[in-house]
């Protein structure tokens, strides 16, 4: 299969792929608690693997994931989860490490800076000859920022189209319980996309013991469900990207 990861490709390979389909998939993620059974980078690992599959399926290229720059004081399990103190304890860290103001920048300013970073990335990708940029928010709250960039680029830079997605929102009619945090949905996807990053044996042996920092029961995660989700998400994202390219 032809290479689709932009950073691994020779210029001649990029030109050929871009001429065939000028769509760039840009994964967005973060480093965040996803239960004791999942890698902390689940969001970006998931988004990047999906981006690669989208490019392999419909053409275009997958860009490296963006891991940093997002708001670290809003919508982050270590800060805002009801069991955030227990999460800190299981990291062997004092909760004070995530106290309000720990980043030195207000949450509002962090949001603005992240949108500006995404705008810069989209314009950089445009300069590389791509006509569509798909911002794939593996960390769901980042969809708000990606949507803002989609609107701003439509107003300011009409020679490139930005499409903002997470993936689960595109399949909810077919998979009603799609979209959770480290539960059945996300764990099942990671089982399929990056199986070495999941260890179900880390879940409590007692089925009645609550899971820390997890929504939806991760114990029900399985590869068949994950494959169904991956295939449908990839199909729907590719459809949206192709629609954007066709105008």
Summarize the structure in words.
This protein has 247 residues and is of the alpha/beta class. It has one domain: Creatininase (Rossmann fold, 3-Layer(aba) Sandwich), CATH 3.40.50.10310. Helix content is 44%, strand content 8%. It has helices at residues 11-20, 42-58, 77-80, 84-90, 107-127, 142-156, 184-193, 223-246; strands spanning 23-28, 61-62, 132-137, 161-165. The chain has a 4-stranded parallel beta sheet with strand order 2-1-3-4, with helices on both faces. Helix 2 links the parallel strand 1 and strand 2 (61-62). Helix 5 (107-127) crosses helix 6 (142-156). The longest helix is centred in the C-terminal third of the chain and has 24 residues, at 223-246. The radius of gyration is 18 Å and the shape is globular. The relative contact order is 0.17.
């Amino acid at each position: 299969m032809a290479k689709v990861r932009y950073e691994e490709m020779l210029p001649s390979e990029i030109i050929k792929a871009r001429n065939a389909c000028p769509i760039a998939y840009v994964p967005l993620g973060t480093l965040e608690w996803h239960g004791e059974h999942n890698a902390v980078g689940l969001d970006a690992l998931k988004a990047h693997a999906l981006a690669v599959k989208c490019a392999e399926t419909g053409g275009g290229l997958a860009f490296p994931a963006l891991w940093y720059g997002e708001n670290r004081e809003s919508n982050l399990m270590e800060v805002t989860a009801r069991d955030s103190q227990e999460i800190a304890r299981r990291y062997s860290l004092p909760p004070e490490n995530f106290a309000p103001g720990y980043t030195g920048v207000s949450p509002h300013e962090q949001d603005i800076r992240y949108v500006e970073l995404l705008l810069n990335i989209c314009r950089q990708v445009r300069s590389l000859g791509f006509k569509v940029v798909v911002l794939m928010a593996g960390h769901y709250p980042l969809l708000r920022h990606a949507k803002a960039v989609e609107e701003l680029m439509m107003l300011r830079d009409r020679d490139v189209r930005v499409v903002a997605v997470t993936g689960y929102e595109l399949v909810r009619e077919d998979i009603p319980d799609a979209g959770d945090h480290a539960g059945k949905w996300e764990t099942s996807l990671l089982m399929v996309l990056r199986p070495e990053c999941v260890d179900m044996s880390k879940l409590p042996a007692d089925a009645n013991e609550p899971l820390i920092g997890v929504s939806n029961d991760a114990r029900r995660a399985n590869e068949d469900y994950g494959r169904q989700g991956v295939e449908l998400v990839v199909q729907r994202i590719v459809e949206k990207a192709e629609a954007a390219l066709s105008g």
